[in-house]
Amino acid sequence: MPSNCTFPLGLTANGRRAFLACTTAVLLLPTSAAFAQEWPEMSFRLTMTVSAEEPLGQGISHFIDRLSEETGGNVSVDFFPSGQLGQDLEIFEQISDGTVQMHASGFGINANYNSFFAPWLFRDFDHVQRVLDSDMAQGWNDALSAEQGVNVLMAYPRAARHITSNGRPVVTPADLEGLRIRVPQIPILFDAFTELGADAVAMNFGEVYSSLQAGLIAGQENPLPTIAGFSIQEVQEYISLTGHVLAPEYIYVNVEWWDSLPDDLSTLMQELLVEGQQVAADATAIAEEEILANVRAAGGTEIVDVDVEAFYVAARPILDRIGPEHLGEETYRVIVNLAD
In whole angstroms, what is the distance from residue 244 CA to residue 196 CA? Predict the structure, then answer.
């Protein structure tokens, strides 16, 4: 690979675009050039708790196929989507002990990586990426490596979370007042909704559909693929496009295994994971558009555009007060400073 295509961990947005352009040119070389490299014969385990059909799964499947293609089949992946080897907490133990080598998940391995669930704090995925590229996040990774033998290689974008409701749409922050809404028990997310006036309820997700149907709660919040995947729109009058959480998906690796790979192989794998990132981003955008079109065509549930900026303004003083407590003073300060 040309020296100017070296992959640096923690690329900026412009750097990622330049890197993709450079690596694309290299990967378009004749297949024989790719196979000229002597790749070791090996396999490794890669897990996900979501299905291979979801956007994250499409990005990871692209990575797997391209890795086989680029190495002439010498490097293969034993792929276990849909939680076949366990849920996230179980898999984190398996990554630590080396029985699983790579895991793709939106579940934060510790509180640091759940900071991205702070609502109306992150502006876009570039903002998320700037935080992950920061010295602070490198410190998170160093500590994670030392304590659990795990590293976060990179992040993939994930569909934003939106609010669904009965009785009234959530168009402005005032519409949250008194709304009985199920919110996951992630402290920064749950407490922010409560401080904004919502009657936030802790509830297992498996109970949400029936509770909405029975009127025990009036709303919930989730990404569009989750809303549609569990038919939440069947028991909700409104989907308000609040886009309040932009938490990403993470690519975790066992550090000892990753460090044992030949440099040219680990570089190739990172390049192909970047390709997969774009595949996942494109699939997410397509899925969201298709879901909105299908909901509109079915009728019965109104798609509502909201004044998102008003939510950022309303949430900021609340987050300034509770953010340092929940996320840590340094984490909150870095996130805010990297907003622009």
Answer: 13
**Dihedral sign of CA atoms 108, 111, 117, 121 in order:** negative
Q: How far apart are CA 108 and CA 223, in angstroms?
A: 17
What's the total number of domains in the chain?
2
Contact 109, 150 (CB under 8 A): yes
The crossing angle, in degrees rounded to 10, of helices 135-148 and 329-337 is 140
| Contact of 326 with 191, CB cutoff 8 Å | yes
Residue 182 contacts residue 211 (beta carbons within 8 Å): yes
Cβ 89 vs Cβ 49: under 8 Å: no
Same domain, residue pair 191 and 313: yes
**φ, ψ of residue 134 in degrees (nearest 5):** -75, 160
308-327 vs 329-337: helix crossing angle, rounded to 10: 150
> pLDDT for 221-276, tens place per residue?
999 999 998 999 999 999 999 999 999 999 999 999 999 999 999 999 999 999 99
| Tokens standing for residue 242 | 């609040």
Do 148 and 206 reside in the same domain of the chain?
A: no
* Band of residue 219 on the pLDDT scale cut at 50, 70, 90: very high
Q: Which domain holds residue 235?
A: 161-246+293-328
Taking only the tens place, the pLDDT of each residue in 290-312 is: 999 999 999 999 999 999 999 99
Long-range contacts made by residues 324-333, C-beta under 8 angstroms, separation at least 24?
A: 326/118, 326/187, 326/188, 326/191, 327/111, 327/115, 327/118, 327/188, 330/136, 331/112, 331/115, 331/136
Q: How far apart are CA 228 and CA 288, in angstroms?
A: 10
Alpha-carbon gap, residue 314 to 192, rounded angstroms? 10
